Amino acid sequence: MPVAAGTGTADAALKVRVNAIGREADEICSFELVDPDGAPLPSFSAGAHVDVRIADGLLRQYSLCNDPSETHRYLIAVLHEPDGRGGSKILHETVKVGDTLTISSPRNHFALAGREASFHLLLAGGIGVTPMMAMMHELEDRAADYRLHYCTREPGKTAFLDRLQPRIDAGKVMLHHDGGDPTQGLDIRATLAPFTPGMHCYVCGPPGFMSAAMDAVGAWPPHAVHREYFTSPEQDEERVDAPFQVRLSRSGHVLDVPADRSIVDVLRAHGLDIETSCEDGYCGTCMTRYLGGEPEHRDTVLDDGDRKKYVMICCARATGAPLVLDL
Ligand code: FES
């Protein structure tokens, strides 16, 4: 899944070689990435993504869609979006087998629940199926019960059909094609209606798909809902940004954050080296502990429990007393 567009630097950089490029569906290619010397790659868990350095200062995030038990390769899949922000176009049109790419180590903000989950309901829209591919492997290794509903416009735009077919035959995967009209596709509300304790749902897809799913899980306990966005959800047009202050707990410095700047901007201007990727609240890279103050969270990564301790400083703002950061 293409999660993000960012301008930061890939951390824990790994050099990988493009070992194969496959066509998975119309406008969707997979890229198999391996260590140039054949060494094992850092392990990952289902739902993880890597940052791919597309060009200087340009990172994109892609979910790993191979079996997490594999250590000899990473597989990512990329939807060609000619009108997008450039990453997919470069990968589709210029990257060749044998090229070297720089990527980050895997990070996971979309992990599967543990043994407390008795049933895993996976909902994928379009290229949002990529993290689900790894999830199915991990769930099968655990002998855990799951279903995947995979929604696409038409069969030609449905990726990984060869890997999905045995699971379709086994009744584990259901495909839904809407021909471009969401009312003709999966009834998301009905699919997510019957919550029972032990169920966990995982949702990944384009903005309309995500908002339909999030509307449908209103009655679910937050800990049972897992989601990953391609891009930040639509912002509240009514929201007004006001200036506020942050205090750095280690130095005691108090810094002003103007209405038109982010906390990250201000910290960098004061010489701090802050790692970011999406700079839009949905990748999790800039997660920072806070020790006081009242953050106004604007991310899509943290759950209510996390929000008591952490803040995404690329997008969060604050009200009242200075926000005290553990920096
Ligand atoms: S940089 Fe992505 S959440 Fe902050």
What's the topology here?
Blueprint (H helix, E strand, L loop, with lengths): L1 E5 L7 E12 L2 E7 L13 E8 L2 E6 L10 E6 L7 H8 L5 E4 L3 E2 L10 E7 L3 H14 L3 E7 L8 H9 L3 E5 L10 H5 L6 E7 L1 H10 L8 E5 L14 E5 L5 E4 L5 H7 L17 E10 L13 E3 L4 E9 L2
Parallel strand pairs: 9-10, 9-12, 10-11, 12-13, 14-18
Antiparallel strand pairs: 1-5, 2-3, 2-7, 3-6, 4-5, 4-7, 4-8, 14-15, 16-17, 16-18
Bound molecules: FE2/S2 (inorganic) cluster.
Keywords:
327 residues, alpha/beta, Elongation Factor Tu (Ef-tu), domain 3, Rossmann fold, Ubiquitin-like (UB roll), eight-stranded antiparallel sheet, five-stranded parallel sheet, 18 strands, 16% helix, globular, binds FE2/S2 (inorganic) cluster
CATH architecture designation of the largest domain = 3-Layer(aba) Sandwich
Binned, the helix content reads 10-25%
Question: From the helix content, strand content and strand pairing, which structural class follows?
Answer: alpha/beta
What radius of gyration results from the CA coordinates?
Answer: 20 Å
Query: Are any ligands bound, and if so which?
Result: FE2/S2 (inorganic) cluster
Beta content = 25-35%
CATH topology of the largest domain, what is it called?
Rossmann fold
Please summarize the sheet with the most strands.
Answer: 8 strands, antiparallel
Order of helices and strands: EEEEEEHEEEHEHEHEHEEEHEEE
Q: What's the total count of β strands?
A: 18
What would you call the shape?
globular
Count every helix, treating DSSP H or I runs of 4 or more residues as helices. 6
Reading off the top of the CATH hierarchy, the class of the largest domain is best stated as: Alpha Beta
Low-confidence stretches: 1-10
